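Researcher: I've been going back and forth with a colleague about how 1-acyl-sn-glycerol-3-phosphate acyltransferase might be arranged in three dimensions. Neither of us has a model we trust, so I'd like an independent prediction. The organism is Globicatella sulfidifaciens DSM 15739, in case that matters for your notes. Sequence below.
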Amino acid sequence: MTFYQFAVHMIKFIFHLFNGKPQISGLENLPEDQPLIIASTHRSMTDPFFLADVIYPKEVAFMAKDSLFKQKWLAKLLAKGNVFPVNREKPSTTTIKHAVNVLTKENLNLGIFPSGSRHTTEIKSGTAFIQKLSKATIVPVAIQPPIGFWQFITRKRAKIAFGQPIPFDSTQKYDKEMLANVDAQIAEQFDLLDKQLDPEYVYVPKPKK
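Model: Here is an independent structure prediction for 1-acyl-sn-glycerol-3-phosphate acyltransferase. You can compare it with whatever you and your colleague have in mind.
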């Protein structure tokens, strides 16, 4: 058993014990025969853990903010769990290249949060550009997670919906306009999936401290 597999089993046990099984829809939208860019809303620190749980045994490598890698022991632990650092304000060429290699050489799914942060819902450029380089399919995901420790332990169940795949279109030129169009499709699906899960749901980002 790899460290990643062990970690996911531990996550499943802890999350199901304290929060119960999440409500999931649209798993059939995950193509079976290719690594995917799993583009998710980001509203809680638990989001990547829920994703790793529900798509298992598929494995996913996540981008995470580079400040988490300042401690050597934590950086080593995250690396064993297929997590790699990114400067959220200005992703480096090295980070983009690594993200593409995750999909094309390591044959893993790439987990990415297009907003870049829990403190905004604005879609940043980057996801579509990685699709351009990797030619991978994007699957948008909306997560309505428990917010904060109290909601988690009082079993406010997470709701997760996987949207329609956005395949790479080899007939199109992925110029600035096309990349913006892909980002717009992701944002549109986030809205549709949220309404599908709960028509009354509204996420209000907390200001960054």
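Researcher: What would you highlight for our discussion?
Model: I'd start with this: The beta strands are 23-25, 36-40, 60-65, 83-86, 109-112, 137-144, 159-162. After that, consider the following. The chain has a mean pLDDT of 93.
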